[in-house]
Specification:
Oligomer: single chain
Shape: globular
Number of domains: 1
Largest sheet: 4 strands, antiparallel
Order of helices and strands: EEEEEEE
Distance between the termini: 15 Å
Length: about 100
């Protein structure tokens, strides 16, 4: 199965990007905690802050604990299609682990 991925440009962190999911535009802000080797996502819809500091955890859908109708319709899950990885790290995000967009 072929998936769509959210792009992560590690060399630009911290940074923001806009993306249409699927018909509304959201702003993602990506941050990295170098001390503990993890990434977080802030999510905005227009001028509204939806989530700050959502940790990217392997295999766990983003925003699952706070999801409501304001959030993107597809589920976004950090995954390695080969199944070899079990954690999200600076080394593997965007290399073998990707933020996979799954339509509901």
């Amino acid at each position: 199965m072929r998936f769509e991925y959210l792009p992560i440009e590690k060399e630009n962190i911290p940074y923001r990007f806009d993306i249409a999911l699927p018909i509304e535009i959201y702003t993602f802000e990506v941050r990295y905690n170098e001390t503990y080797d993890f990434f977080t996502i802030d999510l905005f819809k227009g001028d509204e802050t939806l989530v700050l500091g959502e940790k990217i955890v392997y295999g766990v859908p983003l925003f699952r604990d706070v999801y409501d109708r304001r959030f993107p319709a597809p589920t976004i899950v950090p995954l390695d299609e080969s199944g070899n990885e079990q954690h999200v790290t600076y080394k593997n995000l965007g290399e073998t682990v990707f933020l996979v967009v799954m339509n509901r």
